[in-house]
Design a protein that fits this description.
The chain is mainly alpha-helical and 83 residues long. The chain has one domain (13-82): lambda repressor-like DNA-binding domains (434 Repressor (Amino-terminal Domain), Orthogonal Bundle), CATH 1.10.260.40. It is built from 5 helices and no strands. It is globular and about 25 Å long.
């Protein structure tokens, strides 16, 4: 039969955190692009879990959100932000 396919809507939990943090700040992807200079499509790919950001871009994104870069890769980032 082969390997089961992943749903197109599946987002790995580690990447979901980045989207939660962005939404918690009330920002759109366009807002993040304007504040960071990270191309729109790269932010979208990162949030979908299809392509990681390099360390420099991850640090820039975290600085905009006011959190540690590693928090963007954790499932608990939204809870930590809300605390």
């Amino acid at each position: 039969m082969g390997r089961p396919r992943k749903s197109r809507n599946y987002i790995p939990p580690s990447y979901r955190a980045a989207r939660y943090v962005r939404l918690a700040h009330g920002l759109t992807v366009q807002d993040v692009y304007e504040r960071t200079g990270i191309p729109y499509y790269r932010i979208c790919l990162f949030e979908r879990g299809t392509k990681p950001l390099d360390d420099a871009d991850l640090a820039t994104l975290a600085r905009v959100y006011g959190i540690e870069p590693r928090a963007l890769l954790k499932q608990t980032a939204f809870a930590e932000l809300s605390a």
